[in-house]
Amino acid sequence: MSTDAPNDPKPEETASEHLNIKVTDGNNEVFFKIKRTTQLKKLMDAFCDRQGKAPNSVRFLFDGTRVQGGDSPESLDMQDGDTLEVHQEQIGGGSSF
Amino acid sequence: MSSYHYPERSSLIRYVMSHLIVRQLQSVLKSEGLPTSGLKAPLQKRLTTHIEDLISKGDTSGLERVKNLIYRPESPAPSRNSTVNYNQTSGYASPAPPMAQTPPYSAPGYGSPSAALSRIHFKESPFYSVLVGLTPLETCPIMTANRHSVHVSVVLSAPQLQQISTDKSYRCMVYCAAVDGITAYTKDTDIAFPHQVELRVNDVQISGLNLRGLKNRPGSTRPADITDYLNRKPGHRNQVTLTYALTQKKFAFVVNYVKTDSVEELVERLRAGASITKETVIADMVRKNEDSDLVATSSIMSLKCPLSTLRIDLPIRSTFCNHMQCFDATSFLQLQQQAPTWSCPTCNKSISWKALVVDQYFRDILNNTPKTVDSVTIDVDGAWSVAAESSGTPMPDTDSEDGNGGRDDIIEVSGSRLSKLRVEATPIAPSPVATTSREGSASVPRSSISAKRPASQVIDLTLSDDEDVVRPAKRINSFLTPTSMSSDGRGGGSGSSSSNGNGSVFPPFDPVVYNGNSHSPVGTPGPFLAGGYGR
Q: Where does the Ubiquitin-like domain lie (chain A) (predicted)?
């Protein structure tokens, strides 16, 4: 469904040009309206800026998988109203190779 | 007025033209708020024009300031360190004579003419204001292998003794710092004691002092309070001994007579002090939202202090923070008194006492919401409202579409637990609390959290009767199907005790009422220390 079909003049397609995304860190929530094609880096930076967090001190999860800066709502197949979870970034604790 | 400065004019300008390098010119210009771009010649021109300008205006204080900057361009704010020995800053010795005419600022005097370093400018702390030094600055030479003791004697004057014994806020404190690379002009020196250190007063070792601060956090050490160990006989020479070993740096210490300020006093000072106005906060919010690609529609802001997790009493943040989240003045200052890290609990920026301000916007929200509300929804234009789900913590797990199945489960659990409470609580607890909070559980799953609280009352009561426990649980389940609500809810499910609940329960659910009721017992969990020291 996320294949872009600009020829298709369905009204709901234009309506879903923007998505409402909830970003929450378990304490505070911010609702963002974002274009399907906008890189999520922008959203992450905006959230960090608002919350006063350093961008490299947190990780963003969508459906449990980490969101990269280059992802867009389109590439992650996000729906209107989806939630991004913000968790504290941590180092260590992984298995050593 | 200008005639007074006229004679110095030529020497000043000559000095600017011949002695100052580009970097110094830039720093002087910058301090004066002038542009610092361009090559050396335009910089010199700009500065001399500025000086001529000041002379023609007869601006004595401005001239004085510029003069200080020019002759000592290293330190941007010369006012504190005017009693300066010019031989120490190499190279600027020659123009010292004009400076010497300026009256020396009366720094609290611990003048020891012999030591090269006569004073240390310690980082200021709002908790301690140094009134006077009781001893000269005593240096502790480097001891890489041995231990060493340095003695000073402290004699308190009669008025000081009087003050100390009547007013607990006057203290004697040992300030110590590593002095390698520190000159008399170095500002904001962190307090630091040698790693291996003992402090004795009159041969009594002072215990229970944390002289190390937090690990890897320089500046988090407090001065050492020795007041209670001093002999209060007038004229008694108290011997203060600093024993240390295995140092790689030179240290120096001094005993200061200090007036301390309590957290409460500081909070009051903040309350009366500077603030960020509502308009500023809102304008800032609108400005952040100008990007058309990404629009923040609304956000939920917690009214709880990130340090204490209690509702904020006096919301403060620093002027450097660009987040809206505030923290509580009392909690923050209490932490800073213990371990002065002075970093923002939200964004970790280092914030000074002077930069702390009250956020009027946040304060307005706090003043206009009931005490039980602990988060609000903020719209783009700065308008705010009590969030529909303003209780508890909105954890990510309450999200999304598949919540229906999960919700039913949760309701069963909390419902049965609550109905236990309600059934047995009728003789004891006021039933409206139980009924409304149960109602809340039907729509907001997390109220199971709040339901746990009264559950402590439940425990001993469940021993009474098993059937009462089981039956209402069934009844709750039947309520969930809307069809059965009218018939079943009224007649069949309820036995004797719960009939009073039914009438009042199901009428429309009001989130605000629900919050008010269910949260009042939750309001003071007090995990302050855990939250505070964890970070």
A: 17-93
Helix (H) or strand (E) holding B455: helix B447-461
The contacts of residue B82 (CB under 8 Å, 6+ apart) are B68, B99, B102, B104, B105
Beta strand extents in B163-232 (DSSP E only): 170-178, 196-201, 204-205, 224-225
**Within 10 Å of residue B403's Cβ, how many Cβ atoms?**
13
pLDDT at B408 over 50: no
Helix or strand or coil: residue B121? coil
Structural tokens at position B503: 């009438």
Nearest to B293 among A30, A35, A83 (CB): A35
Q: In 3-state terms, what secondary structure has residue B172?
A: strand
**Mean pLDDT for the stretch of residues B292-300:** 81
Q: What does the alpha-carbon distance between residue A18 and residue B284 come to, in Å, rounded to a whole number?
A: 24
Chain A: closest CA distance from residue B392 (Å): 9
Question: What size, in residues, is chain A?
Answer: 97
Quickly state the pLDDT bin for B460 (edges 50, 70, 90).
low
CB contact A51 to B (< 8 Å)? yes
Cβ contacts of residue B291 below 8 Å, gap of 6+? A42, A46
- Helices then strands, counting H and E runs in chain B, come out as 18, 16
> What is the architecture, at CATH level 2, of domain A18-78?
Roll (3.10)
Instruction: Please answer yes or no on whether B296 and A33 come within 8 Å at the CB atom.
Output: yes
Of B294, B323, B298, B328, which Cα lies nearest the Cα of B311? B328
Instruction: Please name the residues between 75 and 94 in chain A that touch chain B, using a CB distance below 8 Å.
Output: 82-83, 85
Count of alpha carbons within 13 Å of B16, Cβ hemisphere only?
29
Give tens-digit pLDDT for B486-523: 444 444 444 444 444 444 444 444 444 444 444 444 44
Right CATH for B265-386 from 3.30.40.10, 3.90.180.10, 2.40.160.60, 3.40.50.10860: 3.30.40.10
A49 touches chain B (CB under 8 A): yes
Residue A62: the pLDDT is 93
The string of pLDDT tens digits covering residues B468-485 is: 444 544 444 444 444 444
Task: Note the pLDDT tens digit of each residue in B385-399.
Answer: 886 654 444 444 433
Q: For residue B456, count CB atoms less than 10 angstroms from its CB and return exposed for 0-12, middle for 13-18, buried for 19 or more.
A: exposed
Query: CATH topology for B7-71?
Result: 1.10.720
- Write the residue in B299, B322, B346 that is nearest to A29 by C-beta: B299
- Partners of residue A35 in chain B, C-beta under 8 Å: 293-294
From chain A, pick out residues whose CB is under 8 angstroms from the CB of B293.
34-35, 38, 42
Question: pLDDT tens digits, residue range B441-454?
Answer: 444 444 444 444 44
- Highest averaged pLDDT of the listed ranges A78-82, B15-19, B440-444: A78-82
Angle among Cα B241, B243, B244 to the nearest 5 degrees reads 150
ipTM over 0.95: no
pLDDT in the model for residue B105: 40
